[in-house]
Amino acid sequence: MSEQADQRAQPTDEERVEMLETMLRIREFESRMRDNFADAEIPGFLHLYIGQEAMATGVCQVLEDRDYLTSTHRGHGHCIARGLDTTKMAAEIYGKETGYCNGKGGSMHIADVEAGMLGANGIVAGGVPIATGAALSSKMRGTDQVAVAFFGDGALSEGAFHESFNQAAIWDLPLIGIVENNQYGEMSGIDEQHPPSTHDDLTIYGEPYGAHREQVDGMDVEAVYDAAARAVERARHGEGPSLVECVGYRFEGHHEGDSEFYRDDGEYEHWKSKDPVETYPERLIDEGVLTADEWAAMQADVETEIDEAIEFARESPMPDPQQAYEGLYADGGDSR
Amino acid sequence: MSLASRETEEMAVRDVINQTLDEEMERDERVYIQGIDVHGRGGTSNILKGLDEKYGRERVRNTPISEVSIVGSALGAAATGMRPVVEIMYCGFLGVAGDQLLNQVAKMRYMFGGKLDLPLVIRTKNVMGANAAAQHSQALHHWLAAIPGLKVVCTSTPEDTKGLFKAAIRSNDPIMLFEHGSVYNETGQVPVEDYTFEIGEAAVEREGEDVTVVATQAQLWNALEAAEQLGEEGISVEVVNPRTISPLDTETIAASARKTGRCVVVDDTPLSYGTQSQIAADVSEEAFFDLDFPVQRLGIPDVPTPFSPSLENEILIDTDDIVDAILTLA
Questions:
Q1: Span B289-298, mean pLDDT?
Q2: B35: three-class secondary structure by DSSP
Q3: Which residue in B56, B57, B60, B67 sits closest to B89, CA to CA?
């Protein structure tokens, strides 16, 4: 941790329950997508966020509806945490006309620009300059909107990250970078991705840009909430960019079907003991914020919601093939 | 378009760009400029001089030397309520911003189901004949035109510069606006009134009966000179300015080729896989049975542009080359 928090941001009990529900919704949605992908119901390929739920959830809990975010190829969690509709998400992943992008984007490109969600992105660090531009736009329009760029540890090796943070620092932009360190860049560990001087604290990459830096336990949703609250507050008050590293783990492969040959013995079990979707409900029950019955009811409700989302996706029509030629340009002058 | 009935003034292309950006920034406060040394120096060709004093550093915004974030942040700003006009100093530097152009700017609207507008203009310049060597001397509009999702405009004359700039800035789609270093100081009559030229419409710059020459930018000026020379020898040359490379106005170009039965396409992109090949293919498909000869292409030979004047002059296309090509057909 590079800077000590002077004051801890504490979610209310209501927010804590909300965050649990969000994490559960992500887990349930993705687990079902995993199973249905394995059953060959879903075209293309799939990158899952399972294990990292606390990261997106803690950050999005402190955002306002007017704020912006950009996401990654592993973007379902960010979308759900932002409040996107799981029904339209499922339909998009199934390639259906009723999806967020009418079947033009799929799993890696879900977006809802009106909701400030400027897109999942198939290019590592591809969204960081876009978030920087949203932050610039907020500043030029004189609003107090902030922009959050979610990206993995691998994005820190991309020029796009460095160019964006350099520019955001020079211009004092309300940009918050969330480094989701899930221990792997695709299928290579940190030793092959970053020099040893950075391994203990990847926020060091923000140091030359003068970014406010915090490293937190990415399996602890309240630790994420706390760091994100401070970064967002700074951004909203014109104090420039922040870089927050969430240290956690991805329980699934880089994509579904990955043999996961690269994991060390015992590694999975170590991280599984920190699984936020298992530890957080226990904690809330222990602390009397939630009863066991309420937790059971929440699980049943979310399961029903996801059942319905998947049913909607299954039953929705495929896009009319002619739609392949639509949507390219605003003036309707589409491709020849 | 007839200039006869309208008030016009004589202006150089570089001054038209400055004045047009000024008018559009005045008209819409969401329009702003970002790029390297746009403030102070007035951009790499000093064209923006004075805009900084009028609009300040917020709207004439110097960036670090970071083409990825120059383009990417402009895209993000365009997606969230601004109308950025970006300057990329030389077209060769577009390569640095490659992913943002290819995978973000071009694909964002389509991939999101056509649900957002991206009012983004990226200005850059083609350069040939400046003894600047290969990285600073090339024409690349064909390269970007090969990417669905980008509209690509080439400005050539004072009149089209104003009409195309205004159309591009007011468009809700991403537009690659290619200027050409060799035409900045060319002058011509420009209507004083506010007007736009439709993106995707070509113009017949000179009417003729015997041969059609389709030419862009510096080569348009050479083609008009060649037409003038050949006119004195009794050969009537029609000159067509595509104005927009993508989408290309095949209809206007093919109609001219049908009328004359002969077509030469001349452009500063490399000959192989260049603009010329696309236009030649379109004309052949549309007008084959009305052509008396195969469509001829003039382009830069397939080498990087060399530095030394004796080497560079060898590969450049000039008015004589166009005259020779026309005479081959005549």
A1: 97
A2: strand
A3: B67
Q: Which of A118, A161, A163, A165 to mutate: most B Cβ within 10 Å? A: A163
Tokens of residue B96, six digits: 């640095």
The stretch A167-187 carries a mean pLDDT of 96
Q: Is B55 helix (H, G, I), strand (E, B) or coil?
A: helix
pLDDT, mean of residues B178-187: 98
Per-residue confidence (pLDDT) for residue A1, from 0 to 100? 44
Put simply, the answer to whether B173 touches A137 (Cβ < 8 Å) is: no
Whole-angstrom distance, CA of residue A301 vs CA of residue B222:
73
Rounded to whole angstroms, how far apart are CA atoms B249 and B272?
A: 21
Radius of gyration over every alpha carbon of chain B, rounded to an integer in angstroms: 19
Assess whether B136 carries a catalytic annotation: yes
A241 — contact with chain B (CB < 8 Å)?
Answer: no
Contacts of A327 in chain B (CB under 8 A): 109-110, 113-115
Query: Which residue is catalytic, options B136, B141, B142, B180?
Result: B136
Distance from CA of A215 to the nearest CA of B (A): 25
3-class secondary-structure state, position B265: strand
- What does B195-221 look like in DSSP terms, one character per residue? ----TT--EEEE--SSEEEEE-HHHHH
Of B34, B49, B149, nearest to B82 (Cα)?
B34
Residue A325 to chain B, least CA–CA distance (Å)? 9
Q: Quick one: tokens of A245?
A: 């590293």
Q: What are phi and psi of B290, to 5 degrees?
A: -105, 0
Mean pLDDT, to the nearest integer, of A227-244? 97
CB A150 within 8 A of CB A187: no
Q: How many residues does chain B have?
A: 330
- The residues, any chain, with a CB within 8 Å of residue B64's CB and separated by 6 or more, are A163, A166, A167, A170
Instruction: Find, in chain A, the residue whose alpha carbon is nearest to that of B109.
Output: A328
Q: How buried is residue A309: exposed, middle or buried, by Cβ count under 10 Å (0-12/13-18/19+)?
A: buried
Write the single-letter amino acid at B199. Answer: I
Q: Is residue B24 annotated as a catalytic residue, yes or no?
A: no
| Predicted pLDDT of residue A331 | 81
pLDDT in tens, B127-166: 999 999 999 999 999 999 999 999 999 999 999 999 999 9
B36 residue type, one letter: I
- Provide mean pLDDT across the span A149-159: 97
Residues A9, A13, A17, CA angle at the centre, nearest 5°? 110
Q: Is A218 helix (H, G, I), strand (E, B) or coil?
A: coil
Compute the average pLDDT of residues B26-53: 97
Contact at 8 Å (CB) between A117 and A58? no
> ∠ CA(A312), CA(A82), CA(B82), 5° rounding?
110
pLDDT at residue A5 greater than cutoff 60: no
Q: Find all residues with CB under 8 Å of A208, minimum gap 6, and list them.
A: none
Instruction: Tell me phi and psi for residue B124, to 5 degrees.
Output: -150, 180
